[in-house]
Amino acid sequence: MTAAIRTEDVAIGGGRHLRVNQTGTPGAPALLFLHGSGPGVTAASNWREVIEGLGDTYHCIAPDILGFGDSSHPDPQPQGFTAQAEVRIEALLELVDVLGLEKVVLVGNSMGGMYSLRIAQLRPDLVGRIVLMGSGGMPGLEPTPDLIKLITYFDDPTVEAMADLLIRFVHDKDAFGDTVEAVAAERMPIVRRPWIEAGHRAMFGPEMLGFGPDDLAKIDIPALVVHGRQDVIVPLECGYYLAEHLPQADLYVIDKCGHWTQIEQAARFQAIVRTFVGDGTE
């Protein structure tokens, strides 16, 4: 049995809204899923299968982050990764307040993992646990060639370029080729919105959101670092770094898996999240 997804626009103030996908029962342990930064990404394309699978036990909340998908977009666009993060995280915290969530487990994919770490710095009282999946955040990490393809996607924003980009997110390209093509097709109508390209181009620059060893040492919250061994978008080195310096971190490396752990190893990812989170009473 899978949980049905409820989708609505939630007003957060300033005339803005976030498109929010939810499963499960409010009042159950709350899991807040934060997606990555790829062109045309939405919470649904990142997390659909996961929140359907976990909604029997948890209250799963997966928003389109401000500036992505069907959520409001900043106008004017903040310039730079850190400036974008500040505005988007403020909006996420407003969402948490509107939904009346007193404690959440943050589940962050790639950019969403970096946002999870920043939220834990700003509001440690709010965060019960953190799951980082293919997360960035290691200072000085050089972009991989495949990450550069993501960053420069809008230089050639075609369906073919999207499929070529997204197939790099998985290790087993034969098994998941059809899945990737479906995700690519789902993203294209969003990619064509001019504010999506504007936000993408404004985000990526020389300044990234990084967490030094001293920063991570202060995030004294149980954390699970999940990383695909064959991740060519954010290398495994980053997962090792985060696990080494977060004081309460477990590291789970999945072999024969790329950047999209939640898609390529969906059942295993859901199982380890269940084990890590438990019943949410700890």
TrEMBL record:
Matching entries from SUPFAM superfamilies are given as: alpha/beta-Hydrolases
> Which positions fall inside the AB hydrolase-1 domain?
31-269
Name of the protein described by the UniProt record = Alpha/beta hydrolase
Q: Which Pfam families match?
A: Abhydrolase_6
Domain of life per record: Bacteria
Keywords attached to this Swiss-Prot or TrEMBL record, sorted alphabetically, are: Hydrolase
The protein's organism comes out as Actinomadura napierensis
Please give the PANTHER family that the UniProt record associates with this protein: AB HYDROLASE SUPERFAMILY PROTEIN YCLE, MONOACYLGLYCEROL LIPASE
The family database entries (Gene3D superfamilies) matched by this protein are listed as: alpha/beta hydrolase
A single GO molecular function, which one? hydrolase activity
